[in-house]
Amino acid sequence: MSVRMIVDVRVKPGSQEELTRAYAALRERAERQPGLIDHQLCEAAEDPERWLVISEWESLETSEEWDRSEDHARLLAPMRACFAQASRAGFQVRDGVSR
After folding, report:
1. Strand, coil or helix: 96
2. Which of 87, 2, 9 is nearest to 41 (CA)?
3. pTM for this entry
4. Domains with residue ranges and CATH for the chain
5. From CA 34, how far away is CA 89, in angstroms rounded?
6. Closest CA to 92 of 3, 25, 26
7. Is the pLDDT of residue 97 over 90?
8. pLDDT tens-digit profile of 7-62?
9. What is the sign of the dihedral through the CA atoms of 58, 99, 49 and 29?
């Protein structure tokens, strides 16, 4: 059963472009990470300071391995510098539609 990790972020005003650049570097490396199914950076349609970072993993263990890696820490640091606040939650995927 897969797990979806969601980071809900308030971005510091004016940091949106910096966040997207930092995410591109993280995404490039994450694409090669074993167990990763999907990874997205999403901007709220009506609030340019609210963003989500969403990833889906084959298992909680593969997500946690990535979270503990030096690459993750190094690549996440520039993103965190853009955060005014952030919260993180993990969810087991129970049902849904994929195309």
Report:
1. coil
2. 9
3. 0.91
4. 3-92 (3.30.70.100)
5. 21
6. 3
7. no
8. 999 999 999 999 999 999 999 999 999 999 999 999 999 999 999 999 999 999 99
9. positive
